[in-house]
């Protein structure tokens, strides 16, 4: 793994640990797939070009790292979302995929 990629992965893991230790993270298991996407999109859209102003390099990177950590949290909570019927169990995915392909 490149040193840059390793550095970024470490930053994402550090951010995930920070987020996990924030008050309220104990409620993460209540989030739906839509909640997780909305949270990630918040960070993805924070530092983009608006009104002709270029985003700041560090702020853009920080937003992407926060979004990546949120996506990690969503991945960690897939079993909970499936248990609460917010996601279809894997054995039903192929039937849904076939229906969407038509």
Task: Write up this protein.
With about 100 residues, this protein is mainly alpha-helical. It has one domain. Helix content is about 70%, strand content about 0%. It has 5 helices and no strands. Helix 1 (about 5-20) packs across helix 3 (about 55-75) and helix 2 runs antiparallel to helix 3. The termini are far apart. The mean pLDDT is about 90.
Order of SSEs: HHHHH
Q: What is the overall shape?
A: globular
What Rg is obtained from the alpha carbons, in whole angstroms?
A: 17 Å
**Could you tell me how far the N terminus lies from the C terminus, measured between alpha carbons in angstroms?**
40 Å
Oligomer: single chain
Mean pLDDT: 89
Strand segment tally: 0
Number of domains: 1
Structural class: mainly alpha
Number of helices: 5
Describe the protein's topology.
Blueprint: H1 3-20, H2 33-46, H3 57-76, H4 78-83, H5 90-101
Helix pairs in contact: 1-3, 2-3
Please tag this protein with its features.
102 residues; mainly alpha; 0% strand
């Amino acid at each position: 793994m490149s040193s840059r990629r390793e550095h970024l992965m470490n930053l994402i893991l550090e951010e995930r640990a920070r987020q996990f230790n924030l008050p309220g993270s104990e409620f993460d298991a209540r989030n739906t797939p839509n909640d997780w996407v909305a949270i990630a999109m918040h960070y993805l859209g924070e530092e983009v070009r608006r009104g002709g102003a270029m985003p700041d390099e560090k702020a853009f990177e920080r937003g992407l790292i926060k979004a990546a950590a949120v996506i990690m949290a969503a991945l960690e909570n897939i079993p909970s979302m499936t248990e609460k019927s917010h996601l279809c169990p894997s054995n039903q995915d192929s039937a849904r995929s076939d229906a969407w392909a038509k």
